[in-house]
Amino acid sequence: MKRIVSLLIVVALFCSCSDYQKALKNEDVAAKFEMATKMYDAGKYSKAIRLFEQLAPSYRGKPQAEKLFYMFSQSYYKTHQYYLAGYQFESFVSGYPRSEKVQEAAFLGAYSYSKLAPVYSLDQTDTVKALEKLQAFIDNYPNSEYIAQANEAVQILNGKLERKAYENAKGYNTISDYKSALVAFDNFIADFPGTSYKEDALFYKYDSAYQLAVNSIPQKMEERLNVAKVAYNNLVKFKSDTKYKKQADEMNARVETDLQKFTK
């Protein structure tokens, strides 16, 4: 009995594959559309895509085009082809603004771009683009059922930009480019006032100001020591029991001692 069942499954699969191959070569667009829908419903999205690609030019403007292009977009999304999915969903929204699927398509189009955002250490051009797309969706559909997901995606993407900006600023400190570090940390703190890296940013800003001051030429030392002192005060004001307290206090003692030389 098991052999018979297995044989029937093999025969069914063979027939299905045979029918699919015929549909690919068939000039009958209706038969091709039927097979594409069958492949889509069965979750065979890669096969469906091949048929949709053949059908798309001849179905534009036809009554069934809305269904076809929705399935086409979803098939790219389901196979993780996010550039193509984003493009197709955007085209769907533009072509069928009154569709009942328009909000879903608008969200998935924007969300597809978020899937392309790389890790924070790489170039963040795609992250910025995804944020723009998601913000446009939020602005256009503020009451959508997808708003929570969109906001979550925005938070994740902003986190990548935040980490990138912090690591860039810290990188200047690491290579002893203290002037650039001071500017970068100021920009970072201004751009991300609620950042979880604020304590670290304030310390490394202080460290940059300190290193710049104590290694400065005499003509610029007093001014730079005062800048370092302000940076120290900002750190302990933000968090009096900072994890950097011992090191920061030792550095500040040196700053105070050096400043006394300019008051005599």
From TrEMBL:
User: Do the record's keywords include Mitochondrion?
Assistant: no
Q: Which SUPFAM superfamilies match?
A: TPR-like
Question: Record's InterPro entries?
Answer: BamD, BamD-like, TPR-like_helical_dom_sf
In terms of superkingdom, the source organism counts as: Bacteria
Mention any Pfam family matching this sequence. Answer: YfiO
Ranges for the Outer membrane lipoprotein BamD-like domain?
Answer: 30-218
Ordered alphabetically, the record's keywords are:
Cell outer membrane, Membrane, Signal
- NCBIfam families, alphabetized: OM_YfiO
Q: What is this protein called?
A: Beta-barrel assembly machine subunit BamD
What is the species listed in this Swiss-Prot or TrEMBL entry?
Flavobacterium cutihirudinis
Lineage from the top down? Answer: Bacteria, Pseudomonadati, Bacteroidota, Flavobacteriia, Flavobacteriales
